[in-house]
Each structure stands twice: as C-alpha cells, then as structure tokens.
C-alpha cells in the first residue's frame, strides 16, 4: 500500500521559495530552470528512503561511540573526471582508510563518499578576475564550466540534468564495486601492504604489523572472509542548489514522508546555515540524516538553535555537526559548543572536517593546506572530546585516490615546487592517495595510544 503525503507536508516543501537563499546561481533564463527541474522531477530517485533510514541508525551508533564515520571525496566532483578509474581509486582509498581505522578504533567504520552528487560549490566571491578580465565565479559543474570564458561561466540549468546522470552512473559503480567483491578485506589489506612497503612510511611499521597479525589471527580462527566481501557505502554532498535538491525531494510511499533522494546524506554548508534561510527550511522537512558545517565563529546558541530546528525530536543519528574550526582554533572553540549542546541533552554526531579551516595560499599562489596542520586539527578534535568525555564520531575529508600534489607535506614531502606538478582540483586542495592513507594510519595510531 502506498501512503500519500498530507497537503501540509506538500505545501511545506514549497516554503523555501519564499525565503532568502544564499549562494544560488544567477540563472539567466528562469524558464529554462523550470523546464530542467520539471524534467528532473520525472527522473527516478538515486537512493531509496530505507537506505537513508539505515544510515541514520548507523550514525546514531557513531554518536554513541559504537561506530565511526569516514566521509571523503573531492571538494568538487567534475563531469570530466567521473570516469571508472577515478571513481575506483576514490572508493579504494576510502576502503583502505576504513580498514586501518576499523583496526585503530576497534569499531565498525561507516563509509561515505563525498561522491555521486558533489557538483555545486559555494564561493567567497561571486566574481573572478584574471588579468583584468572579470567573469562569474565557477560554482561547480552543476552550474557552469570552469573554463575562463564568458560563455563557459554562464550558469546553464541543463547542467542540473547532467549532474543527475553523472551521479547516477557514479552511484551505480559504487554499488557494483562494493557489492561485487571489490571491497574484499583481503584485497584491501594487500593495498595497505603496498603503502607500508614504502620507506617513507616506516613509522607506521608497528601498526601495519599488528594489522597483519590480526588478519592471520582471523584466518586461523576460520573467519569466513567471503561473508565479508560486501560493504555498505553511502553517498553524500552539500545540499546547495535548492532547485536541484527540491526536485529530488520525493515522498516515500511507505510512510508518506519526504526524503531527499539525491543522496543518502546531505549537509548544509557553513555559508548557508542561516536559521531563517531557505536551506535550513527545506532540509528540516526531509527525513534523511543531515549534516551541518560549523566554522570557528559558531556560537553555542547557533548550534543549539540549528539542532532544535533540524532535529526537533532529538532523534539519534538525524543530525551530524561537522566542525571545521582550523587547527589554531579547535581547542578553544569546540569545547564550548560540545559542552552546551550535550548539556542540553541533545544527541548529535560530532565529526571533524580538518580541511576547511586550514586553507592557505602558497607564495606561488596555489590554494593549499599543510598536511601537518590538517592532522593537528584532527588531534585537537580528539583531545577536546576526550577531555569532555564526549564522542568523536568521525572524519570528513577532501581526498582523491590519485597521486595529485595539492596539499603540502606528508611523509612524501610535497613542497611548494611540487604543487605545480599535479595540481588538478578546480576548487579546494585534496589529500592524495598516500596522504589519505597516512592520515588513516596517524589517526589509528592515536586511537591505539601509540
Ligand atoms: O569548499 C569550497 C571552498 O572552501 C568554498 O567554496 C570557498 O572557496 P573560495 O574561497 O575559493 O570561493
Ligand atoms: C564548502 C565546503 O565546506 P564549508 O561549508 O565548511 O566551507 C566544502 O565542504 O567543500
Ligand atoms: Mn571544499
């Protein structure tokens, strides 16, 4: 039997249209936006509401300290790079990191890609100037193209449809790999060996040896590795473009309730989390687990008000606060937020994004981050939670599975000169494959108390 939504629910889903919405493209032809979103409304959902419910339960476990979230992927996915190789490398990186973290934390790791829909970007400036020429900023492949010509920078709503199709092919490949045997723990473990065979990572030898022994122990005990061949991997992106997110919001026929069916998990960015804004209103009405980014200027009142608005019933797993304070601020700012939110009896899942508070410009002009600073924020995040007796629930990371050179440092010492070698991101710098693994080893080591 199919349950329909009440008229109030349907009406509520239109309310965002009357509210201020930051960071929306200036579409030159509003009729073309209507045409594109009408078409989008006829497309099938990309995820099933029941999957989002399962994820909510798992995030509730992370909030209680019974699981750990690993969320990672590009700052901005691009259509050009939604290829099998790039997607496979990202999945592999996330699975490898997850295996190391599972060992370090002795907890199940919830795997989630910033993938299959991460095609829209908020920007600090609406415009970009190069050599005296000023054009609209690049806002992600769902909006305009990165090329620096007037034509390419014009927002084109047909890109919303392309974003849907690219998301569909990406999630299809994620499902194929993770249910088809690619995630086999034995294989994942082999990849880890490749990493530790590199002398640059000698300091992780002890931990790698322990993981080896654990695998041998499991084998000796007769663990059925074939039963462990499939893993659940979830998709997520920033719910930024309201035309897209609203068109992908559908009524679950089992419950008559709305779900955003563009991804399992969506988050509201630091720049669009106004309490009286359109993003908060639309997302308050869908049933998916939600994230909200919290930067260093967030007050405890802001955090509490967001929790009350987005999670009025205080449902465990519904709300994840993704804090991105910067390594220099996390130890000062985070305790006040965590204390107050928990003190009010709120259950949220606390996750660390060590990327967005630590962005710098290198002397040669690259937007980059220092690996050591990124790691320092992760350490600060754990220290704060340990001191307060609260739960560090996960990590949110910008990464790629390829050998790019976008973040400075790490054991392989990407330096200023190396940035020019393979700087490929269109927006923010990502950890490369090795740096991602190194982060996982570092965090696992910390969790093991080495
Ligand atoms: O994640 C993305 C960026 O941090 C955000 O879009 C702002 O980037 P910008 O300062 O380059 O515009
Ligand atoms: C823009 C992003 O983050 P924030 O909203 O935290 O700045 C992002 O995650 O790419
Ligand atoms: Mn980013």
Short characterization:
The protein is 42% helix and 14% strand. It is α/β, with parallel strands linked by helices and 450 residues long. Strand 6 and strand 7 (257-260) form a beta hairpin.
Notes on the structure:
One of its GO terms (molecular function) is 3-deoxy-7-phosphoheptulonate synthase activity. Helices cover about 40% and strands about 15% of the residues. By secondary structure, it is of the alpha/beta class. The chain has a single domain, classed as TIM Barrel (Alpha-Beta Barrel), CATH 3.20.20. An eight-stranded parallel barrel has the order 1-2-5-8-9-10-11-14, surrounded by six helices. The protein has a two-stranded antiparallel ribbon with strand order 3-4. A hairpin with a 4-residue loop joins strand 6 and strand 7. The longest helix has 23 residues. The termini are far apart. Erythose-4-phosphate (E4P) binds next to loops.
User: What class, by secondary structure content?
Assistant: alpha/beta
Number of helices: 15
Portion of residues within helices: 40-55%
Bound molecules: erythose-4-phosphate, phosphoenolpyruvate, manganese (II) ion
Topology order in helix (H) and strand (E) letters:
HHHEHEEEHHHHEHEEEHEHEHEEEHEHH
> What is the averaged pLDDT score?
96
Task: Based on Cα principal axes, name the global outline.
Answer: globular
Largest β sheet strand count, sense and barrel closure: 8 strands, parallel, barrel
Q: Which percent band covers the strand fraction? A: 5-15%
Low confidence ranges: none
The count of strands amounts to 14
CATH class: Alpha Beta
Per CATH, which architecture?
Answer: Alpha-Beta Barrel
Q: Widest sheet: strand order?
A: 1-2-5-8-9-10-11-14
Task: Assign the CATH topology.
Answer: TIM Barrel
**How far is the first residue's CA from the last residue's CA?**
55 Å
Rounded to an integer, what's the Rg over CA atoms? 21 Å
CATH superfamily descriptor: Aldolase class I
